Amino acid sequence: LARLRGRLSKSNNVLGKGLLALLTRERIDQDVWDEIEDTLLMADLGTDASLELVENLQKRVRIEGTQDPAHVKAMLREELLKLVDPTMDRSINSVGAPGKPAVVLVVGVNGVGKTTTVGKLARVLVAEDKDVLLGAADTFRAAAADQLETWGARVGVATVRSEQEGADPASVAFDAVQAGVDQESDVVLIDTAGRLQNKAGLMDQLGKIKRVVTKAAEVDEVLLVIDATTGQNGMTQAKVFAEAVNITGIVLTKLDGTAKGGIVVAIQRALGVPVKLIGLGEGPDDLAPFDAEQFVDALLD
Ligand code: GDP
């Protein structure tokens, strides 16, 4: 929690400090409510959620007849937590069908941090004593497989790849999962290509990977990686991916580099899928499970 606080609050205290300053005004009048809403919007919470939060908070302030800053802050925390939704299941499905490895597809646009996330996640799973295998299904960029292999070596797991640039991504993904079955691996993590073509192309590519992989083992988890610093643009991309493939969880990367942590709320609402992991830096240990309570506390710190 201390690490999360440190990483987030450096950049994210805009929200916390901004709201606190507003709440300690002598009177919370309509101007203050408008400013609170603006602050939430600036933190990328999205229009719906910002409005909902302000309305709920206004209602409670009225009903409870208090403008005491500490009390209002506590209510704000509760309302924010409701929006982040602590009841969502955020566990990574890392147990496969009997006798099969768990298969995790990692998808998202180029540059959002897919390969890095696969490397970090492999490290987390290895630390849990899992036998992990990586699959380099991003065959469009020559350097992509090398980068994944470097991460693999760093965390001590093998990478299945094709030496041929432009090889069929689905066939590499299949080879990786089949190798995982043969070697009795616990988890196979598949890094996919992030070229954002049109929706039809993306659907074809991800659909084929999923279909072909399923011949060896079921896909247990499809993680969509989103760069938290890209705001609304990232949201638009996320929706395209969500229409192309059935996403089971979101990894929100680069939260260490943004003041806009509210994007968590906006994305979950837009996709109806939980944020499961967050990226807080470029190093191997900079991946954390998403915890709603801790996150809200860090936002308001
Ligand atoms: P991919 O194209 O989606 O596979 O993206 P990469 O994994 O190659 O990452 C793109 C860049 O983002 C690299 O320079 C990473 O080090 C960096 N990166 C990835 N995750 C994070 C994160 O959580 N925080 C920060 N600050 N940088 C990150």
UniProtKB/TrEMBL annotation:
<feature type="binding site">
    <location>
        <begin position="253"/>
        <end position="256"/>
    </location>
    <ligand>
        <name>GTP</name>
    </ligand>
</feature>
<keyword id="KW-0675">Receptor</keyword>
<feature type="binding site">
    <location>
        <begin position="191"/>
        <end position="195"/>
    </location>
    <ligand>
        <name>GTP</name>
    </ligand>
</feature>
<keyword id="KW-0378">Hydrolase</keyword>
<keyword id="KW-1003">Cell membrane</keyword>
<keyword id="KW-0547">Nucleotide-binding</keyword>
<comment type="function">
    <text>Involved in targeting and insertion of nascent membrane proteins into the cytoplasmic membrane. Acts as a receptor for the complex formed by the signal recognition particle (SRP) and the ribosome-nascent chain (RNC).</text>
</comment>
<keyword id="KW-0342">GTP-binding</keyword>
<comment type="similarity">
    <text>Belongs to the GTP-binding SRP family. FtsY subfamily.</text>
</comment>
<comment type="subunit">
    <text>Part of the signal recognition particle protein translocation system, which is composed of SRP and FtsY.</text>
</comment>
<keyword id="KW-0963">Cytoplasm</keyword>
<keyword id="KW-0472">Membrane</keyword>
<feature type="binding site">
    <location>
        <begin position="108"/>
        <end position="115"/>
    </location>
    <ligand>
        <name>GTP</name>
    </ligand>
</feature>
<feature type="domain" description="SRP54-type proteins GTP-binding">
    <location>
        <begin position="274"/>
        <end position="287"/>
    </location>
</feature>
<protein>
    <recommendedName>
        <fullName>Signal recognition particle receptor FtsY</fullName>
        <ecNumber>3.6.5.4</ecNumber>
    </recommendedName>
</protein>
